[in-house]
Design brief:
371 residues, alpha/beta, D-Maltodextrin-Binding Protein, domain 2, 2 domains, 9 strands, disordered N terminus
Length: 371
């Protein structure tokens, strides 16, 4: 009897202590796992700061992308800049750099001595947004030619029109656009924007006898030769959103042709917001270049998120919904995305851009032409 009572006196305090520690443990464990922000697995969200080309901003800030990343435990803070500027920026404090093409990504890795892998998240060809009223005379001039269902814009024919200082009012079969302005594609500022640099890369390829410019001497010769493609435009925006919005809102009177990314046009089609109306169409330069939006991780957590953006099936599906093409096996490049838009065409005559160093040499000469 005495022994039983002694055991009872010992067990009682032990049970009480266990109950106390159990309650304390329940209070501590959520704090240790960081439950207050409701991130992946109930943990705190890891903040990721990214410097990206403006063309990817809509995707990176898409609420569904934000939700998917939150489910995986991450929260993005997105700053934007021209891709050429991203190469030159101090990236201290950033976790990922995301220029709009692979040559800039390669240059960042070289300049910053980065050895970790980079990731192509998605890609999009450069394209020309125009109007059916413009397609008619350019078809008569032999600049626009249709192959199957794909309208191609012959860059050789176009460069010849520019060299001859052709005006819209001088073109054949042109009853609908009697404008005295020069036949000229509107672009962004080649001194800061990747889309204009890709435009330059295409033009330089054609003027170099259908060869990628690969030496300094040729680059320094072609820069001044091609400068008028940009200087004759007057003011140019630093981002494609500017001229593309003018194309959508003001229309043919201000922007009969604008060099954009296919993804911008397709994103509007997929969204079904009725902005692609009144004879607005997309044609493809021949040759053309794919802009490969390439993430350069700057640290371990940036690497984890860059890999996630490149490989997660849901994030890749959302990239397609934002107009991009992907190489992910679950979201092939031919996928139409949401909204009933037709699949993007498989393009012929796709070429590579020059290295960033060669591109910079041509741009430097064009900058000098601005005076």
């Amino acid at each position: 009897m005495a022994t039983g009572r002694g055991n009872g006196r010992v067990v009682g305090p032990i049970l009480a202590a266990l109950l106390v520690f159990g309650v304390v443990g329940l209070a501590i464990i959520p704090r240790l796992t960081g439950g207050k922000d409701g991130g992946g697995q109930g943990g705190e969200l890891t903040d990721i700061r990214i410097l990206a080309g403006s063309e990817t901003q809509a995707y990176l800030t898409d609420p569904d992308v934000t939700k998917r990343l939150k489910d995986r435990g991450y929260r993005l803070a997105v700053d934007t800049a021209g891709s050429r500027d991203i190469v030159k920026r101090d990236l201290t404090g950033y976790d990922i750099a995301l220029p709009s093409n692979s040559p800039q990504a390669d240059q960042i890795r070289r300049d910053k001595a980065i050895t970790r892998a980079q990731y192509v998240l998605f890609f999009t060809p450069i394209a020309i947004a125009t109007f059916t009223k413009i397609v008619r005379p350019l078809t008569a001039e032999g600049v626009i030619k249709t192959d199957g269902n794909v309208p191609y814009f012959d860059m050789r024919g176009y460069l010849d029109l520019v060299a001859a200082d052709k005006r819209w009012s001088q073109l054949k079969d042109n009853p609908d656009y009697q404008n005295s302005g020069s036949v000229l594609i509107k672009s962004t500022d080649v001194r800061s924007s990747n889309s204009a640099a890709v435009y330059l890369a295409i033009a330089s390829y054609v003027e170099n006898g259908n060869q990628v410019v690969s030496d300094s001497e040729t680059a320094e010769k072609l820069g001044p030769q091609l400068a008028k493609l940009f200087t004759l435009q007057g003011y140019t925006d630093p981002s494609t959103e500017g001229p593309f919005n003018d194309y959508l809102s003001i229309g043919i009177t201000k922007t009969p042709m604008v060099m954009i990314y296919e993804s911008q046009f397709r994103a509007r089609q997929i969204a079904g917001d009725e902005s692609i109306r009144d004879g607005r169409v997309l044609v493809y330069p021949s040759p053309t270049i794919y802009a490969k939006h390439t993430a350069v991780p700057l640290n371990d957590k940036g690497d984890a998120v860059a890999k996630l953006l490149a490989t997660d099936p849901e994030l890749q599906r959302l990239a397609v919904r934002n107009g991009f093409r992907t190489s992910n096996a679950t979201q092939p490049a031919g996928n139409s995305g949401d909204g009933g838009a037709a699949p993007p065409p498989q393009l012929a005559n796709v070429v590579e851009p020059p290295t960033q160093k060669i591109s910079e040499l041509m741009i430097k000469k064009i900058d000098e032409a601005y005076g």
